[in-house]
Amino acid sequence: MEAPSIDTVYQAISALYDNPNVNEKEKASIWLGDVQKSIHSWKVADELLHQKKNFQACYFAAQTMRSKVQHNLSELPDDAVISLRDSLILHLESVSPDVNSAILTQLSLALADLALQMPTWQNCVSDLIKIFSNKNNFALLEILTVLPQEIDSSSLKLGDNRREQIKLDLRGNSPIVVIFLKDCINSSQTSNIALKIIRCMTSWTQVKAINLQELAQNPVVGLCVQVLRDYNTHNSLHEAATDCMCAILDCLEQNNNGDEVERMLFDSLSALEESYHLAVAHEEEEKAANLARLFTELGETFLERIIISTANGQGHFAMRSLELALVCVGHHDYEIAEITFNLWYRLSEEVYQRDYQQLTDAFKPHIERLIEALARHCQCEPDDQSLPEEGDEFYDFRVKVYELIKDVVFIVGSSSVFRKMFSVLQANLPWEQTEAALFIMQAVAKNILPEEYDFVPKVIEAILSMPEDSHLAVMNTCIQLLGELCDWIEKHPQCLEPCLRFLVRSLVQPKLANAAAVALQNICKACRSEASCHAALVVEAARAADQLALPIHTASTLMRALAAAISRLPHDQLCSAMRESVGVQLAGLSALLESNTELRKGSPTDPVLWLDRVAALFRDVDVAPPSDPSKGHPCMPAFKDAWPVLHRTMQKYVREGRVMERVCRCVRFCVRGTGRDAAELLPALATSLPPLYAIYQHSCLLYLTGVLADALGGPLSAPPLAHLLHALLPPALELLGKPDGLKDNPDTVDDLYRLCVRYLQRIPLQFVESGCCTAVVSCGVKAARLDHRDASCSLMSFLYDLLRLAHESDPATPLGSQINAIVSDYGEALTYALLEASALYLHAYMLSEVGKVLLELVDWQRRHGVDWVAAALPRLPRGRAHATEQQCWQFHQYAVKAVKCKEATRLLRDFARLYR
C-alpha cells in the first residue's frame, strides 16, 4: 500500500462515521483497516494527533497508535522507537481533562505498552512522574493506572523475565507513586480525580507493588473507606473503592502480614455494616452489592485463619465476617445474596477436608441461617402462574442455590434440613412458601438415609394425594422431589407402584411432562428389579409419547425410563419388549425416509426425534448377565432390526451434520448396549461407513469407528477394523493436510486421535503393522501446536499411549520392534514440537497433558542413550521474550530428571511463561 494523503484519511474517517450509505461505510472501514496494518500508519496517526481536527480522527489515530505499538513495534528501528516515545509524551502532555476519555485511554495504553517493550527505558515510572507532574496530573493518573494492567497482557508477550524486571521496578517506585497520589488527593476535591486516584491504587495493588505494611499510612486506603462510608457517593466511585479494597484483601490473603495491619483493615471494613444498612434503607442497590462483595472478600481473606483458630478451640476476630456475609444473604434481592456464595463454598470445602466434628459444629448456626435465608429467596412471586423458565435469572439463581445447598448441607445434616422444611409444609402457608420448602427438600433428598421413616412417607403420601388444582409450580417441584427420593423408594418398594402411576398421569400435562419423565427415569433406574414388575405402566406411557406430542428431550428421557424398567425382565420378555419399543421408533423413522417432506428441526419431520429415542432405549437397558451365554444378548435382535434403517438414514442425510452426529450416537449406544454380541454386525458397519465418509468428512464417523474398536476390538474383529481404518485414514489425513486444515478441523483431529487410541489399546499389532501409525504420528508432530482443548487432549493421549507401549513392549517382538522404530524416527521432531507448542501456542491449562507425553519421551531417550531435549532447546525462537541460555540449561537439567507428571507440568508452565 502506498502512503495515503492525510486528506484521503480524513475523507475515509468521515465516510465511516457520517456517511448514511452502508456500502460506503463498509468500504471506508476496510480501507482504514488496511491503513492501520501498513507501515505508513505510524506517520498518519502521528499527524492526525498533531492536527486535532475532530474527535473521530483523533480517536482513530489514538487507537491506531495503541494497536501498532502493541502488535507491530518491531517494524520500527531503535531510534524511531525513542522518537515515538517522545511524540506520545508530547501528545499526552497536551491532553486536557475535557478531552474524551477514550482518546486519553488509548494514548496512555500506547505509551504504557511502549514502555513495557523498552528494556532500555529504565526507571520509566520516575521519569513519567517527573515529566508529567505539575504539568498534567490528569494524564499521568491514567498512564500510571494502565501501566500495571498491561504487564500481563497476552498481546504483548513480554515474557516472565521482562515482567519480573518491570514488577521490581514498580515495587521500587511505589513510594513516590503513593506520594503523588497523596498530592492529588490534597490538591483536588473532584469525584472524577478521586475515581482516577483509586483506580490507579487498585492497579498497583493488583500487581503486588504496594507495601502492605504501610497500609495504615496509605492515604488512598483512607479515601476508599471514606467513600464507602458515604451512601451518597456516586456509584462509579463507590464501585472503584470496593475494587481497591478487594484487591488489598486479596494481597493480604496471599501474604503473611502483621496482625496489626490485618486488624486495622478488618476493623475499618467491618465498621461499614452501618453503611450497608443505610444503603439498603435508601434503596441504593449497587452500593449494597458493592459492600456485600467487600464483606465476602473479607471473609475469604481470613477464612483459613478462622478455620485454624476454631479447630484449636479459639475464637478469631474475623469470625464476624461470616455474620456480615449472612446479613447480606438476608437482603431482599437474591442477586446480593448470590454474591456471597463463593465464601460458603470455600467454608464447606475447608470444613469437609478437616473432617473434625468440633469444627463442623462451630459453623452449624451459620449454615442453618444460610439455608433458611436461601429458602426465602427461592420463593416465586405470589401472582406468578407459570414455572421458572430455564435461562431466566431467577431459574439460574435457584440452580445455584440447589448446588450450594448440596455442597454445605453435610454441616447441618440432610435430615435436619428435611425436617425443618417439612414443618413448613404442615403450616398451611401460601403456595410460594410451600414450593420453596419443597425445592430445598429436593436439594437434600438424595442424602436421606433409607432408614428414615418419620417424614419421608408423609411427604410422599402428601405428594401422591395432591389435588389436581394445585399450583403448577408446586406440582412440578413435588414431581422433582419424588424423583430425587428414588434411592429411598428403592428400599421401600411398596411405594413404587403408586409413585409410577402418579408420574405417568403427570405426563399428560405439557408443562409437567419433562419433570415427570426425569422422575420416572430416576426411579426406574434406581429400582430396576422392582420396576420390571410394573413395566407395563411405563410401556403404555411410552406408547402415548406421540399422542402427547412430547418434546424431543422429554420423549428421550421417557424412553430411558422405559429401558431401565424392562432391563430386569426375563431375557425372552426383554427381547420382545425391546424389539417392540425400538420398532415403534423405527416405523416412524422409516416413514420419514420414504417421504419427501422437508426436514424441520424439532418437528415430526426431524429424524432426530426418532434417533434420540432409539439411542435412549439402548443407552439405559443395562441387561443382567445371561445364565446361558450361548443364547446371546437379548437386545441384539432389536439392534439388527435398527441397523438397516439407521444406515438408510445416514445415506439420505449424509450432508446434514446434525443428523449424522445423532445417527452415530445412536449406533454407539446400540453397540455399547449389546456389548461383544454387536460383532455380528461389524462387517456390515465396516463396509458402510467409508463410502459415507468419502462423500462428506463428518468427524462423528471417525468417533463411531473408535467406539467400534473399543467395544469390539480383538483378534477375531481385527480384519474388518483394520479395513475400516485403511479406508477412513487417507481422506482424514488429506483434510488435515490442507492449508489451515488442522486449525479449521479440530473436531477431526479430536476424533481421529481418539480413534487411534482405541486401536492402539485393542489391536496394537495390526495398527502398527498396517502403516497407519507412522502416518498418524507424522500428522501428530504438526498438530502438537493446535490450541484446541479436546483435539490436543486426544492427540496427547495417543502419543502417551504410544510411548507407554514402546516402554512396555519387548523390543524383540514384532510390535516392540516396529513401535520403537517409529519413536526413533519421529522422537526428535516430536520433542521439539512439544516444547515449541508449550512455549508458544498452547494454553497453560493444556500443558498437563503435554507434560505426561514429555515425561514418557524423556524416559525413552534416557533408556536409548539420546538427548533430544538438549538439541531442541537452542532451536526455539529467540524473539523479544525468550529463555536465557542459563534458563534453558536449568530446564534441561530438571526435565531429564523429572519422574512425576506434576513436575513435568510445572516445568513446562514455568518455561512457557518466559515466552509469553
Enumerate the spans where pLDDT stays under 50 for 5 or more consecutive residues.
none
Largest sheet: none
Distance between the termini: 31 Å
Mass-distribution shape: globular
Strand content: under 5%
Helix content range: over 70%
Q: Helix/strand/pairing class, anyone?
A: mainly alpha
Rg, alpha carbons? 33 Å
Mean pLDDT: 95
Task: Please count the beta strands (DSSP E, at least 2 residues each).
Answer: 0
DSSP summary: helix tally: 48
Task: Walk me through this protein's architecture.
By secondary structure, the protein is an all-alpha fold. Among the domains are: 1-121; 572-623 and 635-675. It contains 48 helices and no strands. The longest helix has 28 residues, at 160-187. It is globular and about 95 Å long. The mean pLDDT is 95.
Give the helices and strands, then pairings.
Elements: H1 6-18, H2 22-37, H3 41-51, H4 55-72, H5 78-93, H6 101-116, H7 124-132, H8 137-149, H9 160-187, H10 191-206, H11 219-229, H12 235-254, H13 259-270, H14 273-281, H15 285-311, H16 320-329, H17 334-339, H18 341-354, H19 357-362, H20 364-377, H21 393-408, H22 414-425, H23 431-444, H24 456-464, H25 472-484, H26 486-491, H27 496-506, H28 510-526, H29 528-531, H30 535-543, H31 552-566, H32 571-594, H33 607-619, H34 636-652, H35 657-674, H36 682-695, H37 699-712, H38 718-737, H39 741-744, H40 746-762, H41 764-769, H42 772-783, H43 789-808, H44 814-841, H45 847-864, H46 868-872, H47 885-897, H48 901-913
